[in-house]
Amino acid sequence: MHPIPELTPLLKQLRLSGILDSLEARNREAIDRKLAFTEFLSLLIHDEVARRDNKKLSLRLRRANFRSQKTLEGFDFDRLPGLNRAAVHDLATCRFIDEKVAVLIAGPCGTGKSHLAQALGHAAARLGHDVLFATQTQLLASLRQAAAVGTYDRRFQYLARLPLLIIDDFGLKPLRSPDDEDFHDLIAERYERVATVLTSNLDFPEWGEAFPGNKMIGAATLDRLRHGAYKIILDGESYRDPDAAKTLKTKLAKETKITQS
After folding, report:
1. What is the pLDDT of residue 241?
2. Hey, what domains does the chain have and what are their CATH numbers?
3. How far apart are CA 4 and CA 20, in angstroms?
4. pLDDT for the residue 204
5. Could you tell me the pTM of the whole model?
6. What's the pLDDT score for residue 249?
7. Which regions of the chain are under pLDDT 70?
8. What is the DSSP string of the chain?
9. Burial 96-107 (b: 16+ CB within 10 A, else e)
10. Phi first, then psi: what are they for 197, rounded to 5°?
């Protein structure tokens, strides 16, 4: 009698139904390779662990709210010859998360700041860290919405405890009361407890301009962010430069023509 139909309800009861996905194939492999029972069992267990890890990773990536699948493998370093690749790859080990410090990324529009920030987030998720990616506007809007329905404390604590919070477009819009106070309180709560990544179009000396209504709060916030932080400056042509796009299209057209000839 074939044992798999009999095993199916038992594996489901034990919450091991994922084993069914590879059981037939592993059974044939065990027969063909004349594997011992313990070797066969080891293959099944490794399959189940891998399946659960992939399921957890998919959930972390979904919760992270990334705009797209921006990874370090897809980052175009050639457009940024002044960028230290080794330093970026070192950051992708996510040692900064264990150090509980910030990564501050500055540069003009279109140089890849959001891509790099999300790539670090992807690396963190693959290593098992919970991540959230949000623009400054989205982040503060979520706190205002939570306050409106009486769940501000719960939302604040969730954001304060996340192992990695990525805040995109810092300073794109000036922080005014009460947003500047909320932002300061969040950064202060995360300081030396968890890691934060910020991107900004502003040069580092200009970051204080994000707090036009309260310079003192701005100074206190930035002092915490800068302490022990890693700083990255992206200086190169914009990915979204219309002229660059035209050049790329022309190049692709030429390559296609050569391929076809």
Report:
1. 57
2. 4-62 (no CATH), 72-233 (3.40.50.300)
3. 8
4. 96
5. 0.78
6. 43
7. 1-3, 236-261
8. --SHHHHHHHHHHTT-GGGHHHHHHHHHHHHHHT--HHHHHHHHHHHHHHHHHHHHHHHHHHHHT-SS---GGG--GGG-TTS-HHHHHHHTTTHHHHHT-EEEEE-STTSSHHHHHHHHHHHHHHTT--EEEEEHHHHHHHHHHHHHTT-HHHHHHHHHH-SEEEEESTTSS---TTHHHHHHHHHHHHTTTSEEEEEESS-GGGGGGG-TT-HHHHHHHHHHHHTT-EEEE--S--TT-HHHHHHHHHHHHHHHHHHH-
9. bbeeebbbbbbb
10. -115, 130
- What separation, in Å, do the N-terminal and C-terminal C-alpha atoms of the chain show? 61
Q: Which residue type occupies 203?
A: D
Residue type, 122: H
Residues making up the chain, counted from first to last: 261
